[in-house]
Amino acid sequence: MATPLAGVTVLDFGQIFQGSYATLLMAKAGANVIKIEPPGGEPLRRRTPPGAKGTMSFAMLNANKRAVTLNLKTPRGRELLFEMVKRADVLLENFGPGSMDGMGVGWSVLHDINPRLIYATGTGYGISGPDHQALAMDLTVQAASGIMSVTGFPDGPPVRAGVTVADFMGGVHVYGGIMMALYERDRSGVGRLVEVAMQEAVYYTLAGSFEGLYRTGKVPPRSGNQSGGAIAPYGVYPVKDGFVAIHTGTEQHWHNILDAAGRPEVKDDPNFRTMHDRSARLAETNAIVTAWTSSLTKAEIAAQAKQFRIPVAPVRDVREVMHDPHMHSRGMLEWVDHPDLGRVVLPTTPIRLHGTDIAPTMPSARVGQYNDEIFGDWLGLSAEELADLRKNGVI
Amino acid sequence: MSTQPNYPLAGFTILDLTQFYQGPYATMMLAKAGADVIKIEPPGGESLRHMAPAGKEGGFPVVMLNANKRGVTLNLKTEEGRALLKKMVLKADALVENYAPGVMDRLGVGFSVLHEINPRMVYASATGFGLSGPDRDNLAMDFTIQAASGVMSLTGFPGGPPTRTGAPYVDILGGAHLYAGLMTALLERERTGIGRLVEVAMVEAVYSCLATGLDQYFRAGSKVPARSGNAFANFNRAPYNVYEAKDGHVAVILVTEAQWQNLLRAMGRDDLKDDPRFINNDARVKHYDQTEALVNAWTNTHTRAEIFAATSRFKIPCAPVRDIEEVMHDPHMHQRGMLETVEHYDYGPVVLPNSPLRFHGADKVPTRVNPHVGEHNIPVYRDLFGLSDQEIERLKESGAI
């Protein structure tokens, strides 16, 4: 096995999505990730519905990690953390700003114990500035960051992206920041405090909207599924069994649509020649496209997209995506026997380094499953000491 | 010149063949960390420049995504252009591109060729569907990937169509993964001496964002969740929504029962603290409309600022829905240095972002606005790669640069 992060030890205080995603990417790259939870388990575990043994999201985000419990509110718990810090390369947390400091285990304390340790923190608004204490969830960051204001239809309310954008955007930035800090440490010998705020991680997604603001001097209205600028055809079009999304990037794409639609004569029609012409006759342009799409199924459109080179994709639901033959054939998705969930589809990592291996999937661990291995084998505590720690609620 | 600035990626040379959003975002972060990013454009400029408003060299996305890069021109469709790229590869640490799969190979400058020339160079590729698999050659844009990846199916209202997220986050998310993968490869190169081919596909980068949707799918016994507008999937949590204020909207989300009690206090409805209809999330979901009406009655009669002040005081997760102008002028991000006002040759004073990655103890790279097309041909080709003035002149005449 040649994994890129072999030999890197990570203390993972990640919880819910943001932090856990960053450490998942590290685990898949071969790092030794030790997930440290309070004795009751991290908050995401508590979303398990009654009668179920776990959730899909927890299984997705915590594969390839070893889980231990540790109560940082006890002095002995903090001592054990210090022992682990001496042996670790990276510590990651996504608690509210100041939480670790409040427990006496913040960056400055840990940096003194191990100056080579990289300490990474993921928060909603950052660890400085007037809003740093504002409570942050994906939904509220979508609101505060402007994403929601540009999503939805002109006559409707602002709309959230229906998936978790800000958390994962933050998580991948934290991971990237840790890689840079590890690289720099190879030269400087010193570990950095790496910081990412979700609100800042999503800022660049507004680039096109700012363009509208600079062009007109006004905040552009929401444009639903229409392009904010002059691109046509652009939108979500009906098919027999759902919808497809089309984004015409070039004039050649328009010609290809017309070939697929059996309307090649329109290529020479001056009313539809350029993006500008078609935007000016949007209803007529869309009628040509809809006449083509609505006579076909998603699968038929997908086949024509390949044949005629058209930027169109079916709007797929989660079940279709989970069973996507393309991602299964590439190894991004795989079937795994999970001890709590049964046979399920799990993702690996979207980051591929050709010539290196991806760690084979190890299902997410139960709360404290690796306590003996980590505290006993790694830190060298005896069986009696472990029993004591359990009895006293330290682990 | 007495002291070297303290940048994480000082001394690092990147050949940046990227275009549009995804690739340029990755190389922007490298530039902001102190790498020498050489943006290589065809002589007419990259594709995104062609969407510029009249009289400008690029639209605002070009300006945002290409700060701190040096710009050169190079025509890879000429023999001389390709020869020059190979010469540059000898001195580069990484090359980044987001052309469609196979484009660089067809030009004769794909990974396998360049890897022979400089085995230490990392080659990073970002695409929509990846470099392999049955959908490899499907045309990919942020919009179509939002459709194919499932995220659009979960966005919008029940009864309404699937809805695009107006901010192209899939492009930026792909770019962030590309940056992260490139850094992983550099780190690995320190040990192995070998530069890898790094690959990121947008459709894969966005998969984890479906986590909650997949939870609901399994919870419902393999049933696809319906779109739920601004509410939680399957309307399983309350309050969790965007509520109308006097002057706009606010997002409110409760995660603990203590927050519900606090919200009642904030709303002046402490009388309901023991009401069985609202006593816990299950009860509130059962009385969904009544719960929503309670919150709306409060938000409708207050401004966003009043609501945010009250929720802050009572520790309730809430945020005003801000428009992009408010975000651009956010005092918080300006104070933190994420946003700054910069003088730009096309736009005058503009607000530009820095990198969202912060390395405490490292210096901030001073912002330099995005280059004109070919602005740094001389310093790069002559000073960095050792071409003579005559050679550069000849390449210009032959259309190679």
What is the CA–CA distance across the termini of chain A?
32 Å
Structural domains of chain A: how many: 2
Low-confidence stretches of chain A: none
Q: Let me know the number of strands of chain B.
A: 12
Briefly, what CATH class of the largest domain in chain B?
Alpha Beta
Instruction: State the assembly state of the protein chains.
Output: heterodimer
Question: Could you outline the blueprint of secondary structure elements for this entry?
Answer:
The complex is a heterodimer of chains A (395) and B (401).
Chain A: E1 9-13, H1 18-28, E2 32-37, H2 56-61, E3 66-69, H3 75-86, E4 90-93, H4 99-102, H5 107-113, E5 118-123, H6 138-144, H7 166-188, E6 193-197, H8 198-201, H9 207-216, E7 234-239, E8 242-247, H10 251-260, H11 275-280, H12 282-293, H13 298-308, E9 312-314, H14 318-322, H15 325-329, E10 333-338, E11 342-347, E12 352-354, H16 371-378, H17 383-391
Parallel strand pairs in A: 1-2, 1-4, 2-3, 4-5, 5-6
Antiparallel strand pairs in A: 7-8, 8-9, 10-11
Helix pairs in contact in A: 1-7
Chain B: E1 13-16, H1 22-32, E2 36-41, H2 60-65, E3 69-73, H3 79-89, E4 94-97, H4 103-106, H5 111-117, E5 122-127, H6 142-148, H7 169-192, E6 197-201, H8 202-205, H9 211-219, E7 240-245, E8 248-253, H10 257-266, H11 281-286, H12 288-299, H13 304-313, E9 318-320, H14 324-328, H15 331-335, E10 339-344, E11 348-353, E12 358-360, H16 377-384, H17 389-398
Parallel strand pairs in B: 1-2, 1-4, 2-3, 4-5, 5-6
Antiparallel strand pairs in B: 7-8, 8-9, 10-11
Helix pairs in contact in B: 1-7
Structure overview:
The complex is a heterodimer of chains A (395) and B (401). Chain A has two domains: 9-203 and 323-391, Crotonobetainyl-coa:carnitine coa-transferase, domain 1 (Rossmann fold); 234-316, 2-Layer Sandwich (formyl-coa transferase, domain 3), CATH 3.30.1540.10. Helix content of chain A is 38%, strand content 15%. Chain A has helices at 18-28, 56-61, 75-86, 99-102, 107-113, 138-144, 166-188, 198-201, 207-216, 251-260, 275-280, 282-293, 298-308, 318-322, 325-329, 371-378, 383-391, and strands at 9-13, 32-37, 66-69, 90-93, 118-123, 193-197, 234-239, 242-247, 312-314, 333-338, 342-347, 352-354. Chain A has a six-stranded parallel beta sheet with strand order 3-2-1-4-5-6, with helices on both faces. In chain A, strands 7-8-9 form a three-stranded antiparallel beta sheet, covered by helices on one side. Chain A has a two-stranded antiparallel ribbon with strand order 10-11. The mean pLDDT of chain A is 96. With 401 residues, chain B is α/β, with parallel strands linked by helices. Chain B is built from 17 helices and twelve strands. Chain B has helices spanning 22-32, 60-65, 79-89, 103-106, 111-117, 142-148, 169-192, 202-205, 211-219, 257-266, 281-286, 288-299, 304-313, 324-328, 331-335, 377-384, 389-398, and strands spanning 13-16, 36-41, 69-73, 94-97, 122-127, 197-201, 240-245, 248-253, 318-320, 339-344, 348-353, 358-360. In chain B, the strands form three sheets. A six-stranded parallel beta sheet of chain B has the order 3-2-1-4-5-6, with helices on both faces. In chain B, helix 1 links the parallel strand 1 (13-16) and strand 2 (36-41). The radius of gyration of chain B is 25 Å and the shape is elongated. At the A-B interface, helix 1, helix 2, helix 6, helix 7 and strand 6 of A face helix 1, helix 2, helix 6, helix 7 and strand 6 of B. Strand 12 of chain A pairs antiparallel with strand 6 of chain B, so a sheet runs across the interface.
